[in-house]
Specification:
By secondary structure, the protein is of the alpha+beta class. It has helices at about 1-50, 50-70, 290-300, and strands spanning about 85-90, 95-105, 110-120, 125-130, 145, 155-160, 165-175, 180-190, 195, 200-205, 205-210, 210-215, 225, 230-240, 250-265, 265-270. The protein has a domain at about 130-285. About 25% of the residues lie in helices and about 35% in strands. Helix 1 (about 1-50) runs antiparallel to helix 2 (about 50-70).
Amino acid sequence: MKSLLITCFILALTPQFIFAQHSDESKRIKQLHLYEDTLINLGKKFVNDENDLERKNANYAFIKTLVNALKIQNSFLFPFDSVKSVSIINSPDNRFRIFSWHVINSDGSYRFYGTIQLNTGGNLKMYPLEDYSPLLKNPEDSVTDNRKWYGAQYYKIVPVYSPKLYYVLIGWKGNTVESTKKVIDVLSFNEGKPELGMHIFDGNGKTKDRIVFEYTRQASMLLKYIPEQNLIVFDHLAPPDPKLKNKYSTYGPDLTYDGYKLKNGRWIYIENLDMRNIPENRDEEYVDPKKQAAIDKAAAKGNH
C-alpha cells in the first residue's frame, strides 16, 4: 500500500516536472534567439558602417553581447548560424568551437577577434583570443597562447590523432590595402589550456610552427584540405618579376601548386602537386561579410 501511494505521488508530479523542464528550455532558446538578433544587427554595423569609431563601438557591444549569450546554460548547442559577420566552426570531434571575425581599421588594416568555447555540456568555459599579430615579429617561429594569438578568420579545423592530439586551423587573414594573408595554424591543449603553433611543418631544410602566406589583395588564393589524401594544398605564390622577390604585396598564383602532406603526425612540404583531380575553387570556404551582405540584400529584393 505504501509503495502504491509513492508511485501515485511520483506519477502525479511527473507531468508538472516535464512541463517545468519544457518551459525552462523554451525560455533558454528564446533568450538565445534574442541575443542572436542583437548580434546580427551589431555585426552588420561593424562590417558596413563607414565611421571607424562606430564600427569599433559596435564590435565592443558585440563582444559583450556574445559573452552574455554564451553564459546561458548549454549555449554550445545553439548554432548562431544567422550571424553572418563571424565565422563559427566546430571541431569535427565536437570538443570545442571557434568564433572568429575581423574589423577593418581606418587605414585599411585588420584587427581580429575571437574565442574558443569548450563543449562542457553545461556551464560556459571559453578562452578569448587576443590578436597579437603586430607584435609577433616571426609568426612562423612562435608558439603562443590565446593571449598572443596570430589573428585569423578560420574556415577549416582538421584534427590530427598523433601521440598528442592537435588541430590544424586554416584561415583567412586580411592584412593591408595592398596585401592579403592566409594562415595554417595549430591548436592544441596543454593541461586544458590552448596553445597555438607547433613545430611540425617540415620543408626546405626548415621546421616551422605555423605557415603564413602573403599575396596581392587583387588576387585570390587556393588553400584547402583534401581529407582523402591527408593533404593541405595551396597555390604557389610568386612575384610578377624576379626583381620584386621580397615584395609580397605583388605576389600571386603562378598556376602551380604545392602542399603539406601528413606523415607520422608531421606535415611534409611537397612541391609541384598534380592538381588534375583536385577542385580549384579559390577562397571557396571564406565568405567576406560585405559580400554576404550584398548577397542577402539581393535575395531580399528578389523575394518582394
